[in-house]
Design a protein that fits this description.
Elements: H1 9-16, H2 31-37, E1 40-47, E2 50-57, E3 63-69, E4 76-77, E5 97-99, E6 105-109, E7 114-118, E8 125-129, E9 134-141, E10 146-153, E11 162-169, E12 178-181, E13 186-192, E14 198-204, E15 215-222, E16 225-226, E17 232-236, E18 242-247, E19 253-257, E20 264-268, E21 273-277, E22 295-297, E23 302-309, E24 312-319, E25 325-327, E26 334-341, E27 344-351, E28 354-362, E29 367-370, E30 387-393, E31 396-405, E32 422-426, H3 440-446, E33 451-455, H4 465-468, H5 478-492, E34 501-506, H6 508-519, E35 525-529, H7 535-541, H8 549-554, H9 557-567, E36 580-585, H10 593-605, E37 610-615, H11 625-645
Parallel strand pairs: 32-33, 32-34, 34-35, 35-36, 36-37
Antiparallel strand pairs: 1-2, 2-3, 3-4, 5-6, 6-7, 7-8, 9-10, 10-11, 11-12, 13-14, 14-15, 15-16, 15-17, 18-19, 19-20, 20-21, 22-23, 23-24, 24-25, 26-27, 27-28, 28-29, 30-31, 31-33
Helix pairs in contact: 2-11, 5-6
Length: 648
């Protein structure tokens, strides 16, 4: 850190964090409430009629707890009180638990680096210690009574770890892990057919990413493992995304593929491979973490599919016998983590007026169990509803989607002659997709009189492969142009203040925000959370999973080195005029803290107002309530000060 003599903004921000409130409006939602109430629900599933999910708790140092509940019952913790249910394969983890058809539950405890097993009606026991290795994407095979999972092991003398698929006998864990598949750079979704005769998996190699191109394989199971001599490439390649292969009780392999340009549901019966539901809609997601699910197959003869179409999510039901497809009447505009068990459908749902919660539907009689499981302890009576819009820009023949959140109605700044200040969010990924649902991190700003804009710039998922591939070779160009175009569009309509627009981004979104500041000096300031500043340093130090991503975002090879230098914000600090605020975790393996330190030092040398805050114990994405609370308070003070200095 730089002391306050050379960087006076840091101490000033802390001093004013709870001070003067811009426009003298008393905020409803405090930074403390946001930090401690913003629990995250993920990895939902249903087994034997019981619902499971992983709940991350910022107020417990970011600890993740495996929870369970019967429909209409009371939620209870499955994992032990000192457990942190989390995996770290690929740096982002996921796939931290699984269950058997008989109700056995297995999970990974990150603290003890062990796999635990809870039998029905019994206390959980340690199944095996992991040692120095990592595992994720657990799958239970009832025929073999074994766990399949993706393993990641460090190898002395090699920069990157080795990935494989391993098997562990539940009844004889002392035998240790047996390697089933190896030799490819990455694996995911290992699973076994209901009869135990075939194993399927996804794999891909550097420099690819799973949404760029993956391969779906299937091979016979033999006593010694997998017979690769009889392995079949079902579908996939370097230009086809395959997502969530899932065996049905009918012995067919269901999965999502974007072979036709949109991620739709396909099936393979061992002979024929064909599309079951063809729509201009996305039924898959960029696989940043393990365990992502957008559909479920029921043994009752139907499939439930979530799909993103016309800027929102929908649910569809596919009859597997006659292959008719109907759209269900579902009020939720955000849907993920879909699971089906018999007649029970479970998913995470939200809408512009509802926090994320898991929902259980009984599809046998269309009755709905709606359980209030949103992990948010704060109730807000007034909130801003996001308006999903699209705009045309001169640099792009199509439309750029974005979401506009006006200030909360009870605290407007005034009429059209005095539009509100705005915070423009550049999402991360850059393959993510901003969606309109109730989020405390949005409402925190709209309750303070800001408009907030989420831009789904080129590269965002949800709009087909062609839109996502607009960013191919063009990272730092397309995302920046689209973001600036949306800002100019909203300014021209008088919806946001001409001279009071802030940028905000995390990770890849921080990279976009920094490059927008380099291109234009009419932003009042920007906040960057663990943002990419030096592409060369990122390439040299990042983890295995993303080590080849630059070839997709910045290539081809003959232009790569030139583009790395031209588009790295660290080399264009002299073009930045707007004040900057940085937040950085000291345990970040994706964007190491050294990038932020160098950016901070160079900005100070060029006389740009800058402050940076570093947090021990935090990685790429903040998990602790204290960190979130401090960041929001400091960020609020940063905006207040700049608005006041500008006389606004």
């Amino acid at each position: 850190m730089v002391d306050k003599k050379t960087n006076p903004l840091r101490s000033e921000a802390k001093a004013s964090a709870e001070g003067y409130v811009y426009a003298r409006l008393e905020p409803i939602l405090s930074a403390s409430e946001l930090g401690r109430s913003n629990r995250k629900i993920q990895e939902t599933g249903v087994c034997c009629g019981e619902i499971f999910w992983v709940e991350t708790r910022p107020d417990q140092k970011g600890r993740s707890v495996l929870m369970a509940c019967l429909p209409g019952g009371v939620p209870y913790p499955v994992s032990l009180s000192d457990h942190n249910v989390r995996t770290r394969v690929h740096g982002y983890g996921g796939g931290a638990w699984t269950a058997s058809p008989s109700g056995d539950v297995f999970w990974v405890d990150d603290r003890s680096r062990s796999i635990f097993w809870r039998r029905p009606g019994q206390r959980a026991v340690q199944l095996i210690e992991l040692g120095s290795g990592l595992v994720a994407d657990l799958f239970f095979c009832p025929v073999q009574r074994s766990l399949l999972m993706v393993a990641e092991d460090e190898v002395q003398g090699q920069r990157f770890p080795v990935n494989s698929v391993v098997r562990l006998s539940v009844d004889h864990p002392s035998r240790g892990f047996e390697t089933l598949l190896s030799g490819r750079d990455f694996y995911s979704n290992p699973s076994v057919s209901p009869d135990g005769r075939r194993v399927s998996w996804l794999c891909w190699d550097l420099p690819g990413m799973p949404w760029g191109g993956t391969e779906l394989w299937c091979a016979p199971c033999v006593p010694t493992g997998v017979d690769m001599r009889e392995a079949v490439l079902v579908t996939g390649g370097r230009e086809e995304q395959v997502f969530q292969p899932t065996w049905g009780s009918d012995g067919r392999l269901y999965h999502v593929s974007d072979a036709y340009g949109w991620a739709n549901l396909w099936v393979w019966d061992g002979q024929e491979h064909r599309c079951l539901v063809e729509r201009k809609a996305e039924m898959g997601l960029p696989q940043w973490v393990f365990g992502m699910k957008t559909f479920g197959i029921s043994d009752k003869g139907f499939a439930i599919i979530a799909f993103f179409e016309y800027d929102r999510w929908h649910l569809g039901k596919l009859d597997l016998a006659d292959e008719t497809f109907e759209i269900l009447d579902c009020p939720y505009t955000h849907i993920d983590s879909v699971s089906v068990d018999g007649w029970h459908l479970v998913f995470l749902g939200a809408d512009p007026g509802t926090f994320k919660k898991w929902i259980c539907w009984d599809l046998s009689n269309e009755g709905q169990y709606l359980l209030e499981t949103e992990a948010v302890g704060t109730v807000i009576s007034r909130f801003s509803i996001g308006v999903v819009s699209r705009m045309k820009a001169e640099h792009y023949a199509g439309e750029i989607p974005y979401i506009f959140y006006p200030p909360c109605e009870e605290r407007p700044f005034s009429g059209p002659d005095n539009p509100p200040p705005a915070i423009v969010v550049c999402h991360g990924g850059p393959t993510a997709c901003s969606e309109s649902y109730l989020d405390l991190k949005v409402q925190y700003w709209t309750q303070r009189g800001f408009a907030l804009i989420d831009v789904n710039y080129g590269g965002s998922t949800g709009y087909g492969r062609a839109y996502r591939e607009r960013i191919r070779n063009n990272w730092g160009i397309v995302d920046v142009e689209d973001t600036i175009a949306v800002v100019d569009h909203l300014r021209s309509k008088g919806l946001i203040a001409e001279n009071a627009v802030f940028l905000k981004g995390s990770s890849a979104g921080g990279f976009t925000a920094l490059n927008a500041l380099i291109q234009r000096d009419d932003f009042l300031g920007a906040t960057v959370y663990y943002g990419v500043a030096d592409l060369a340093a990122l390439s040299a130090s990042t983890h295995k999973f993303e080590s080849g991503y630059e070839y997709y975002l910045l290539g081809p090879d003959e232009d790569l080195l030139k583009n790395i230098r031209q588009r790295s914000p660290i080399h264009h600090v002299s073009s930045i005029r707007s004040p900057l605020l940085f937040f950085q975790g000291l345990d970040d393996d994706v964007v190491p803290a050294e990038q932020t330190r160098r950016m901070e030092a160079d900005l100070i040398k060029h006389g740009v107002p800058v402050e940076a805050h570093y947090f021990p114990g935090e990685g790429h994405g903040f998990r602790m309530a204290e960190t979130v609370e401090q960041c929001m308070a400091i960020e609020w003070a940063f905006y207040q000060r700049l608005l006041n200095q500008a006389g606004l």
